[in-house]
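> forwarded from #structure-qc
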């Protein structure tokens, strides 16, 4: 119940569309958009909308609630050939045998890939309908940033407050907030990272024993590696179990990242660090 992203990441290979809200308004808006995306004939997959427990769910902030009729105009109910209806009970055999399981998984992969364009169309229409604009990622001050932070969820709000303060002090630091985790928005992300000197990923989940112990870091690093981008990429674990991630934490992350400016990935002896641990 206390916020980190371990439960969210546990579903990352399930074949769902996965969106992460920064605040309560986004949690509300993305849930409405999720119906539009999930029920599109090109997708027809579950859409998971994540938001941070307690930091978002148990705090008070104003939310502009979408009227039900307006929401249904944006995401109208669609008739389905196969539905679960308590009025018409039936029994299903959930077994997928080796004869067809491989094909099922390929179909699932194809549907997730098709969802990329569907998500963009859904976000565009949401902006036209309700005046709030969303993209798979948001970039802040990335055009000339020496260090670009990459984060997801409510911690991006703290990160943006830190970046704006650091900018006023002359520090060239930027931020990318990842809103769409699956399918991972490689192209949109790369546009904000290609000019960076160092990329510092802020993870709120831990994969012990993995080559890349942060799940967000894994996708960010592969996005750059696949494009031949050889810059230092660092992974910082923060806020596990709901612990607060503070501006002081981001100051430490930036300071550590700046030490690698002008170097290459092979110069990084240990790519990850734990920030805010009590030892």
């Amino acid at each position: 119940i206390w916020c980190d992203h371990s439960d969210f990441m546990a579903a990352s290979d399930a074949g769902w569309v996965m969106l992460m809200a920064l605040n309560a308004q986004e949690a509300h808006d993305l849930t409405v958009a999720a119906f539009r995306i999930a029920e599109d004939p090109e997708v027809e997959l579950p859409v998971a909308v994540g938001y941070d427990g307690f930091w978002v769910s148990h705090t008070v902030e104003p939310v502009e609630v979408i009227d039900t009729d307006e929401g249904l105009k944006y995401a109208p109910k669609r008739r389905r050939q196969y539905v679960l209806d308590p009025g018409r009970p039936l029994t299903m055999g959930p077994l997928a045998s080796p004869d067809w399981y491989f094909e099922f998984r390929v179909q699932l992969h194809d549907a997730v890939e098709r969802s990329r364009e569907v998500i963009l169309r859904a976000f565009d229409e949401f902006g036209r309908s309700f005046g709030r604009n969303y993209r798979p990622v948001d970039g802040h001050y990335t055009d000339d940033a020496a260090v670009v932070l990459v984060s997801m969820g409510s911690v991006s709000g703290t990160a943006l407050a830190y970046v704006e303060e650091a900018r006023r002090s002359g520090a060239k630091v930027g931020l990318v907030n990842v809103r769409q985790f699956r399918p991972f928005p490689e192209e949109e992300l790369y546009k904000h990272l290609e000019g960076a000197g160092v990329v510092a990923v802020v993870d709120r989940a831990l994969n012990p024993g993995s080559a890349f112990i942060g799940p967000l870091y894994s996708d960010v690093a592969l996005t750059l590696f696949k494009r031949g981008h050889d810059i230092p990429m660092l992974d910082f674990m923060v806020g596990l179990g709901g612990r607060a991630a503070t501006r002081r934490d981001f100051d430490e992350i930036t300071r550590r990242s700046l030490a690698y400016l002008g170097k290459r990935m092979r110069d990084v002896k240990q790519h990850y660090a734990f920030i805010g641990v009590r030892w």
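QC bot note: The chain has a mean pLDDT of 95. The domain at 137-274 is CATH 3.40.50.920 (Rossmann fold).
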